[in-house]
Amino acid sequence: MGKALIIGCGGVASVAIHKCCQNSDVFTEICIASRTKSKCDALKAKLDGGATKITTAQVNADNVDELITLIETVKPDVVLNLALPYQDLTIMDACLATKTNYVDTANYEPIDTAKFEYKWQWDYHERFEKAGITALLGSGFDPGVTGVFSAYAMKHQFDEINYIDILDANAGDHGYPFATNFNPEINIREVSANGSYWEEGEWIETKPMEIKRVYNFPEIGEKDMYLLHHEELESLGQNIKGIKRIRFFMTFGESYLTHLKCLENVGMTSIEPIEFDGKMIVPLQFLAAVLPDPSTLGPRTKGKTNIGCIFRGKKDGQDKTYYLYNVCDHQKCYQEVGSQAISYTTGVPAMIGAMMVMTGEWQKPGVYNIEEFDPDPFMEALNKWGLPWQESFDPELVD
Ligand code: NDP
Protein backbone atom coordinates (compact mmCIF):
# COMPACT_ATOMS: atom_id res chain seq x y z
CA MET A 1 0.00 0.00 0.00
CA GLY A 2 2.50 2.70 1.04
CA LYS A 3 5.56 4.09 2.72
CA ALA A 4 5.97 5.80 6.10
CA LEU A 5 8.92 7.81 7.37
CA ILE A 6 9.17 7.40 11.14
CA ILE A 7 11.25 10.01 12.96
CA GLY A 8 12.65 9.03 16.37
CA CYS A 9 13.64 5.59 17.56
CA GLY A 10 12.88 5.60 21.30
CA GLY A 11 10.35 3.71 23.42
CA VAL A 12 7.18 4.75 21.57
CA ALA A 13 8.73 4.53 18.09
CA SER A 14 9.97 1.00 18.75
CA VAL A 15 6.39 -0.20 19.42
CA ALA A 16 4.94 1.72 16.44
CA ILE A 17 7.62 0.22 14.17
CA HIS A 18 6.91 -3.35 15.43
CA LYS A 19 3.22 -2.71 14.72
CA CYS A 20 3.88 -1.28 11.22
CA CYS A 21 5.79 -4.48 10.44
CA GLN A 22 2.87 -6.62 11.72
CA ASN A 23 0.62 -4.53 9.43
CA SER A 24 2.68 -5.06 6.28
CA ASP A 25 -0.33 -4.95 3.94
CA VAL A 26 -0.55 -1.23 4.72
CA PHE A 27 3.09 -0.46 5.58
CA THR A 28 4.91 -2.06 2.66
CA GLU A 29 7.93 0.13 3.37
CA ILE A 30 9.16 2.18 6.32
CA CYS A 31 12.21 4.35 6.88
CA ILE A 32 13.34 4.80 10.48
CA ALA A 33 15.28 8.05 10.92
CA SER A 34 16.62 9.41 14.18
CA ARG A 35 19.44 11.32 15.82
CA THR A 36 21.31 8.12 16.76
CA LYS A 37 21.30 5.94 13.64
CA SER A 38 22.73 2.90 15.45
CA LYS A 39 19.42 2.55 17.35
CA CYS A 40 17.52 2.52 14.03
CA ASP A 41 19.92 -0.07 12.61
CA ALA A 42 19.57 -2.30 15.70
CA LEU A 43 15.78 -2.26 15.42
CA LYS A 44 15.95 -2.91 11.68
CA ALA A 45 18.22 -5.92 12.33
CA LYS A 46 15.65 -7.28 14.79
CA LEU A 47 12.69 -6.84 12.42
CA ASP A 48 14.22 -7.52 9.00
CA GLY A 49 12.99 -10.59 7.19
CA GLY A 50 9.28 -9.75 7.33
CA ALA A 51 7.18 -8.40 4.47
CA THR A 52 7.81 -4.71 5.33
CA LYS A 53 10.95 -3.31 3.71
CA ILE A 54 12.93 -1.28 6.30
CA THR A 55 15.55 1.37 5.63
CA THR A 56 17.26 3.68 8.16
CA ALA A 57 18.73 7.17 8.15
CA GLN A 58 20.39 9.69 10.44
CA VAL A 59 18.62 13.01 10.89
CA ASN A 60 18.72 15.98 13.19
CA ALA A 61 15.03 16.80 13.37
CA ASP A 62 15.76 20.30 14.69
CA ASN A 63 17.08 21.14 11.22
CA VAL A 64 14.40 21.81 8.57
CA ASP A 65 16.79 21.55 5.60
CA GLU A 66 18.04 18.13 6.72
CA LEU A 67 14.45 16.98 7.11
CA ILE A 68 13.48 18.26 3.66
CA THR A 69 16.40 16.41 2.05
CA LEU A 70 15.44 13.23 3.93
CA ILE A 71 11.76 13.46 2.93
CA GLU A 72 12.69 14.17 -0.69
CA THR A 73 14.93 11.09 -0.73
CA VAL A 74 12.50 8.73 1.03
CA LYS A 75 9.30 10.12 -0.61
CA PRO A 76 6.95 8.80 2.10
CA ASP A 77 3.15 8.97 2.02
CA VAL A 78 3.20 10.07 5.65
CA VAL A 79 5.73 11.28 8.23
CA LEU A 80 5.12 9.84 11.70
CA ASN A 81 6.82 12.10 14.23
CA LEU A 82 7.88 10.06 17.29
CA ALA A 83 10.81 12.25 18.30
CA LEU A 84 10.21 14.80 21.07
CA PRO A 85 7.62 17.61 21.19
CA TYR A 86 10.43 20.15 20.57
CA GLN A 87 10.72 18.88 16.97
CA ASP A 88 7.04 19.18 15.98
CA LEU A 89 7.32 22.51 14.16
CA THR A 90 10.50 21.78 12.24
CA ILE A 91 9.00 18.50 11.05
CA MET A 92 5.73 20.25 10.12
CA ASP A 93 7.75 22.86 8.18
CA ALA A 94 9.51 20.10 6.25
CA CYS A 95 6.18 18.37 5.54
CA LEU A 96 4.79 21.63 4.18
CA ALA A 97 7.82 22.20 1.96
CA THR A 98 7.52 18.68 0.52
CA LYS A 99 3.68 18.41 0.60
CA THR A 100 3.74 15.34 2.82
CA ASN A 101 1.12 14.25 5.39
CA TYR A 102 2.07 14.55 9.08
CA VAL A 103 1.12 12.60 12.24
CA ASP A 104 2.37 13.08 15.84
CA THR A 105 1.53 12.08 19.42
CA ALA A 106 2.36 15.18 21.46
CA ASN A 107 1.88 18.94 21.07
CA TYR A 108 4.79 21.26 20.23
CA GLU A 109 6.74 22.42 23.28
CA PRO A 110 9.15 25.34 23.32
CA ILE A 111 12.28 24.00 25.01
CA ASP A 112 12.40 26.78 27.63
CA THR A 113 8.75 26.82 28.85
CA ALA A 114 6.41 23.97 29.73
CA LYS A 115 3.15 24.98 28.03
CA PHE A 116 1.30 21.93 26.72
CA GLU A 117 -0.85 23.89 24.33
CA TYR A 118 -1.76 23.60 20.65
CA LYS A 119 -1.65 27.19 19.40
CA TRP A 120 1.66 26.90 17.54
CA GLN A 121 0.50 23.85 15.60
CA TRP A 122 -3.04 25.13 14.98
CA ASP A 123 -1.41 28.17 13.36
CA TYR A 124 -0.32 25.84 10.49
CA HIS A 125 -3.94 24.99 9.57
CA GLU A 126 -4.32 27.27 6.56
CA ARG A 127 -0.91 26.44 5.16
CA PHE A 128 -1.62 22.69 5.36
CA GLU A 129 -5.05 23.24 3.84
CA LYS A 130 -3.58 25.19 0.91
CA ALA A 131 -0.88 22.55 0.39
CA GLY A 132 -3.60 19.85 0.29
CA ILE A 133 -1.98 17.79 3.07
CA THR A 134 -3.31 16.42 6.35
CA ALA A 135 -1.76 16.93 9.79
CA LEU A 136 -3.19 14.59 12.43
CA LEU A 137 -2.25 15.85 15.91
CA GLY A 138 -2.03 13.72 19.04
CA SER A 139 -2.35 10.12 17.86
CA GLY A 140 -1.07 8.42 21.03
CA PHE A 141 -3.24 7.26 23.93
CA ASP A 142 -3.72 10.47 25.87
CA PRO A 143 -3.91 12.52 23.74
CA GLY A 144 -5.08 10.14 21.08
CA VAL A 145 -7.37 7.31 22.03
CA THR A 146 -9.01 9.58 24.63
CA GLY A 147 -10.06 11.89 21.74
CA VAL A 148 -11.25 8.94 19.63
CA PHE A 149 -13.24 7.67 22.64
CA SER A 150 -14.80 11.15 22.99
CA ALA A 151 -15.74 11.33 19.30
CA TYR A 152 -17.17 7.80 19.48
CA ALA A 153 -19.23 8.58 22.60
CA MET A 154 -20.52 11.74 20.92
CA LYS A 155 -21.41 9.90 17.71
CA HIS A 156 -23.07 6.81 19.20
CA GLN A 157 -24.08 7.43 22.81
CA PHE A 158 -25.01 11.09 23.41
CA ASP A 159 -26.84 14.08 22.00
CA GLU A 160 -24.59 16.25 24.14
CA ILE A 161 -21.67 15.51 26.45
CA ASN A 162 -21.47 17.81 29.47
CA TYR A 163 -18.68 16.29 31.56
CA ILE A 164 -15.59 14.25 30.71
CA ASP A 165 -13.17 12.83 33.25
CA ILE A 166 -10.10 11.23 31.69
CA LEU A 167 -8.57 8.70 34.08
CA ASP A 168 -5.06 7.38 33.46
CA ALA A 169 -4.00 4.62 35.84
CA ASN A 170 -0.72 2.77 35.82
CA ALA A 171 -0.55 -0.05 38.34
CA GLY A 172 2.72 -1.29 36.88
CA ASP A 173 5.70 -1.86 39.16
CA HIS A 174 9.23 -1.72 37.67
CA GLY A 175 11.01 -2.31 40.96
CA TYR A 176 13.12 0.89 40.83
CA PRO A 177 12.67 3.49 43.60
CA PHE A 178 12.13 6.16 40.90
CA ALA A 179 11.84 5.98 37.13
CA THR A 180 9.53 7.47 34.53
CA ASN A 181 7.58 5.38 32.03
CA PHE A 182 8.28 7.59 29.04
CA ASN A 183 10.82 10.27 28.24
CA PRO A 184 11.80 11.53 31.76
CA GLU A 185 12.23 15.14 30.71
CA ILE A 186 8.76 15.39 29.14
CA ASN A 187 7.15 13.34 31.93
CA ILE A 188 8.58 15.44 34.76
CA ARG A 189 7.77 18.71 32.97
CA GLU A 190 4.18 17.49 32.74
CA VAL A 191 3.71 16.40 36.36
CA SER A 192 5.59 19.27 38.01
CA ALA A 193 3.62 21.94 36.12
CA ASN A 194 0.51 23.54 37.65
CA GLY A 195 -2.65 21.49 37.19
CA SER A 196 -5.71 22.85 35.42
CA TYR A 197 -9.09 21.85 34.12
CA TRP A 198 -11.56 23.31 31.66
CA GLU A 199 -14.88 24.57 33.04
CA GLU A 200 -17.54 26.70 31.32
CA GLY A 201 -15.08 27.87 28.66
CA GLU A 202 -12.32 28.81 31.09
CA TRP A 203 -9.17 27.24 32.53
CA ILE A 204 -9.20 26.78 36.32
CA GLU A 205 -5.62 26.54 37.53
CA THR A 206 -4.49 24.42 40.51
CA LYS A 207 -1.16 23.90 42.26
CA PRO A 208 0.71 20.75 41.14
CA MET A 209 -1.00 17.68 42.71
CA GLU A 210 -3.43 19.90 44.65
CA ILE A 211 -6.55 17.87 43.75
CA LYS A 212 -6.48 14.22 44.77
CA ARG A 213 -9.15 11.54 44.39
CA VAL A 214 -9.25 7.81 45.06
CA TYR A 215 -10.78 5.67 42.31
CA ASN A 216 -11.56 1.97 42.09
CA PHE A 217 -10.34 1.08 38.57
CA PRO A 218 -11.71 -1.99 36.76
CA GLU A 219 -9.09 -4.81 36.81
CA ILE A 220 -6.66 -2.68 38.85
CA GLY A 221 -8.41 -1.71 42.06
CA GLU A 222 -8.19 1.39 44.22
CA LYS A 223 -5.56 4.00 43.35
CA ASP A 224 -4.74 7.57 44.36
CA MET A 225 -5.03 9.88 41.38
CA TYR A 226 -4.22 13.56 40.93
CA LEU A 227 -5.59 16.25 38.66
CA LEU A 228 -3.09 17.36 36.00
CA HIS A 229 -3.21 19.70 33.06
CA HIS A 230 -3.18 17.64 29.89
CA GLU A 231 -3.07 18.85 26.32
CA GLU A 232 -6.22 17.13 25.03
CA LEU A 233 -8.36 19.17 27.45
CA GLU A 234 -7.76 22.16 25.19
CA SER A 235 -8.89 20.56 21.93
CA LEU A 236 -11.74 18.54 23.44
CA GLY A 237 -13.01 21.70 25.13
CA GLN A 238 -13.47 23.16 21.64
CA ASN A 239 -14.52 20.10 19.67
CA ILE A 240 -17.07 18.31 21.89
CA LYS A 241 -20.60 19.69 21.73
CA GLY A 242 -22.19 20.86 24.98
CA ILE A 243 -19.09 20.41 27.14
CA LYS A 244 -19.17 22.09 30.55
CA ARG A 245 -16.14 20.57 32.26
CA ILE A 246 -13.19 18.32 31.37
CA ARG A 247 -10.66 17.05 33.88
CA PHE A 248 -7.66 14.75 33.61
CA PHE A 249 -6.45 12.52 36.47
CA MET A 250 -3.34 10.37 36.61
CA THR A 251 -2.39 7.85 39.30
CA PHE A 252 0.87 8.24 41.23
CA GLY A 253 2.23 6.12 44.04
CA GLU A 254 3.52 7.68 47.25
CA SER A 255 7.14 6.76 46.52
CA TYR A 256 7.06 8.47 43.10
CA LEU A 257 5.64 11.65 44.64
CA THR A 258 8.12 11.70 47.53
CA HIS A 259 11.06 11.35 45.13
CA LEU A 260 9.63 14.01 42.84
CA LYS A 261 9.11 16.45 45.74
CA CYS A 262 12.69 15.91 46.90
CA LEU A 263 14.09 16.41 43.38
CA GLU A 264 11.99 19.56 43.04
CA ASN A 265 13.14 20.86 46.42
CA VAL A 266 16.79 20.56 45.44
CA GLY A 267 16.20 22.21 42.04
CA MET A 268 16.74 19.15 39.85
CA THR A 269 13.45 19.47 37.96
CA SER A 270 14.08 23.05 36.81
CA ILE A 271 14.19 23.79 33.07
CA GLU A 272 16.10 27.07 33.66
CA PRO A 273 19.69 26.61 32.39
CA ILE A 274 22.43 26.99 35.06
CA GLU A 275 26.18 27.27 34.73
CA PHE A 276 28.11 24.20 35.84
CA ASP A 277 31.85 23.78 35.41
CA GLY A 278 31.97 26.52 32.78
CA LYS A 279 29.08 25.01 30.79
CA MET A 280 25.37 25.80 30.68
CA ILE A 281 23.22 22.81 31.63
CA VAL A 282 19.49 22.31 32.20
CA PRO A 283 19.00 20.51 35.56
CA LEU A 284 16.03 18.49 34.27
CA GLN A 285 18.00 17.30 31.22
CA PHE A 286 20.84 16.22 33.51
CA LEU A 287 18.36 14.38 35.75
CA ALA A 288 16.86 12.65 32.69
CA ALA A 289 20.35 11.44 31.77
CA VAL A 290 20.88 9.72 35.15
CA LEU A 291 17.42 8.11 35.41
CA PRO A 292 16.72 4.65 33.96
CA ASP A 293 16.00 4.76 30.22
CA PRO A 294 12.23 4.07 29.91
CA SER A 295 12.88 1.72 26.99
CA THR A 296 14.75 -0.61 29.40
CA LEU A 297 11.81 -0.95 31.84
CA GLY A 298 9.98 -3.55 29.76
CA PRO A 299 11.38 -6.76 31.28
CA ARG A 300 10.98 -5.43 34.85
CA THR A 301 7.49 -3.94 34.73
CA LYS A 302 4.60 -6.06 35.98
CA GLY A 303 0.93 -5.14 36.37
CA LYS A 304 -1.63 -3.34 34.24
CA THR A 305 -2.65 0.08 32.96
CA ASN A 306 -6.21 1.28 32.68
CA ILE A 307 -6.82 4.47 30.68
CA GLY A 308 -10.25 5.73 29.72
CA CYS A 309 -12.91 8.43 29.80
CA ILE A 310 -16.07 8.79 31.86
CA PHE A 311 -18.71 10.78 29.99
CA ARG A 312 -21.83 12.36 31.41
CA GLY A 313 -24.44 14.06 29.25
CA LYS A 314 -27.83 13.67 27.66
CA LYS A 315 -29.43 11.22 25.24
CA ASP A 316 -33.05 11.66 24.16
CA GLY A 317 -33.60 14.13 27.00
CA GLN A 318 -32.35 11.69 29.67
CA ASP A 319 -29.18 11.95 31.80
CA LYS A 320 -26.64 9.34 30.76
CA THR A 321 -23.25 8.09 31.99
CA TYR A 322 -20.81 6.08 29.88
CA TYR A 323 -17.25 4.83 30.57
CA LEU A 324 -14.90 3.68 27.80
CA TYR A 325 -11.51 2.27 28.78
CA ASN A 326 -8.66 0.00 27.81
CA VAL A 327 -6.75 -2.30 30.15
CA CYS A 328 -3.25 -3.24 29.06
CA ASP A 329 -0.86 -5.72 30.69
CA HIS A 330 2.82 -4.67 30.89
CA GLN A 331 4.20 -8.20 30.62
CA LYS A 332 1.99 -9.16 27.66
CA CYS A 333 3.22 -6.06 25.81
CA TYR A 334 6.79 -6.99 26.63
CA GLN A 335 6.32 -10.51 25.32
CA GLU A 336 4.82 -9.20 22.09
CA VAL A 337 7.06 -6.25 21.19
CA GLY A 338 9.74 -5.99 23.91
CA SER A 339 8.29 -2.83 25.56
CA GLN A 340 6.18 -1.97 28.59
CA ALA A 341 2.55 -0.85 28.34
CA ILE A 342 3.15 2.93 28.39
CA SER A 343 5.14 2.77 25.16
CA TYR A 344 2.69 0.16 23.82
CA THR A 345 -0.45 2.18 24.51
CA THR A 346 1.14 5.13 22.65
CA GLY A 347 2.90 3.24 19.84
CA VAL A 348 -0.16 1.25 18.72
CA PRO A 349 -2.39 4.34 18.18
CA ALA A 350 0.55 6.09 16.48
CA MET A 351 0.70 3.26 13.94
CA ILE A 352 -3.12 3.34 13.56
CA GLY A 353 -3.14 7.13 13.00
CA ALA A 354 -0.46 6.82 10.31
CA MET A 355 -2.50 3.99 8.75
CA MET A 356 -5.71 6.10 8.74
CA VAL A 357 -3.94 8.93 6.91
CA MET A 358 -2.02 6.67 4.55
CA THR A 359 -5.03 4.62 3.46
CA GLY A 360 -6.98 7.84 2.86
CA GLU A 361 -9.60 6.86 5.46
CA TRP A 362 -8.69 10.06 7.28
CA GLN A 363 -7.71 12.65 4.67
CA LYS A 364 -8.69 16.24 5.27
CA PRO A 365 -6.32 19.03 4.20
CA GLY A 366 -5.45 21.15 7.22
CA VAL A 367 -4.34 20.60 10.82
CA TYR A 368 -6.76 18.55 12.92
CA ASN A 369 -6.95 16.97 16.34
CA ILE A 370 -7.87 13.32 16.40
CA GLU A 371 -11.46 13.79 17.65
CA GLU A 372 -12.25 15.72 14.46
CA PHE A 373 -12.19 12.53 12.37
CA ASP A 374 -14.71 9.65 12.14
CA PRO A 375 -13.85 7.49 15.18
CA ASP A 376 -15.34 4.21 13.90
CA PRO A 377 -12.45 2.85 11.79
CA PHE A 378 -9.97 3.80 14.55
CA MET A 379 -12.08 2.07 17.23
CA GLU A 380 -12.18 -1.06 15.07
CA ALA A 381 -8.42 -0.91 14.56
CA LEU A 382 -7.80 -0.61 18.33
CA ASN A 383 -9.54 -3.95 18.83
CA LYS A 384 -7.60 -5.52 15.99
CA TRP A 385 -4.11 -4.20 16.79
CA GLY A 386 -3.81 -4.90 20.53
CA LEU A 387 -5.76 -2.26 22.49
CA PRO A 388 -9.28 -3.66 22.85
CA TRP A 389 -11.69 -1.32 24.62
CA GLN A 390 -14.43 -2.02 27.13
CA GLU A 391 -17.52 -0.05 28.04
CA SER A 392 -19.66 0.40 31.13
CA PHE A 393 -22.97 2.22 31.52
CA ASP A 394 -22.89 2.35 35.30
CA PRO A 395 -19.37 3.39 36.36
CA GLU A 396 -18.29 4.84 39.71
CA LEU A 397 -18.18 8.64 39.24
CA VAL A 398 -15.42 11.04 40.32
CA ASP A 399 -16.73 13.79 42.62
P1 NDP B 1 12.28 8.68 23.81
O1 NDP B 1 13.12 9.70 24.50
O2 NDP B 1 12.35 7.25 24.20
O3 NDP B 1 12.56 8.76 22.23
C1 NDP B 1 12.70 9.96 21.53
C2 NDP B 1 13.43 9.66 20.25
O4 NDP B 1 13.53 10.87 19.50
C3 NDP B 1 14.85 9.15 20.46
O5 NDP B 1 15.11 8.12 19.54
C4 NDP B 1 15.70 10.37 20.18
O6 NDP B 1 16.99 10.11 19.66
C5 NDP B 1 14.88 11.03 19.09
N1 NDP B 1 15.22 12.44 18.98
C6 NDP B 1 15.25 13.37 19.97
N2 NDP B 1 15.68 14.54 19.50
C7 NDP B 1 15.90 14.36 18.18
C8 NDP B 1 16.36 15.18 17.14
N3 NDP B 1 16.66 16.47 17.33
N4 NDP B 1 16.50 14.66 15.90
C9 NDP B 1 16.20 13.36 15.65
N5 NDP B 1 15.76 12.52 16.60
C10 NDP B 1 15.62 13.01 17.85
O7 NDP B 1 10.78 9.23 23.93
P2 NDP B 1 9.43 8.36 23.90
O8 NDP B 1 9.52 7.34 22.83
O9 NDP B 1 9.08 8.00 25.29
O10 NDP B 1 8.38 9.50 23.46
C11 NDP B 1 8.26 9.86 22.08
C12 NDP B 1 7.12 10.88 21.94
O11 NDP B 1 5.90 10.31 22.36
C13 NDP B 1 7.31 12.14 22.79
O12 NDP B 1 6.94 13.26 22.02
C14 NDP B 1 6.33 11.96 23.93
O13 NDP B 1 5.89 13.19 24.45
C15 NDP B 1 5.22 11.23 23.20
N6 NDP B 1 4.31 10.47 24.09
C16 NDP B 1 2.97 10.60 23.87
C17 NDP B 1 2.07 9.89 24.68
C18 NDP B 1 0.62 9.94 24.36
O14 NDP B 1 -0.13 9.14 24.94
N7 NDP B 1 0.13 10.80 23.51
C19 NDP B 1 2.53 9.07 25.80
C20 NDP B 1 3.97 8.93 25.88
C21 NDP B 1 4.82 9.64 25.07
P3 NDP B 1 18.20 9.56 20.60
O15 NDP B 1 18.00 8.09 20.58
O16 NDP B 1 19.43 10.03 19.93
O17 NDP B 1 18.00 10.18 21.97
Automatic annotation (TrEMBL):
Report the residue ranges that make up the Saccharopine dehydrogenase NADP binding domain in this protein.
5-136
SUPFAM superfamilies, per this entry?
A: NAD(P)-binding Rossmann-fold domains
Q: Where is the Saccharopine dehydrogenase-like C-terminal domain?
A: 140-386
The upper taxonomy is: Bacteria, Bacillati, Bacillota, Clostridia, Eubacteriales
Keyword Oxidoreductase in record: yes
Record keywords: Oxidoreductase
Q: What is this protein called?
A: Saccharopine dehydrogenase Sdh
The EC number on file is 1.5.1.7
**GO MF terms, alphabetically ordered:** saccharopine dehydrogenase (NAD+, L-lysine-forming) activity
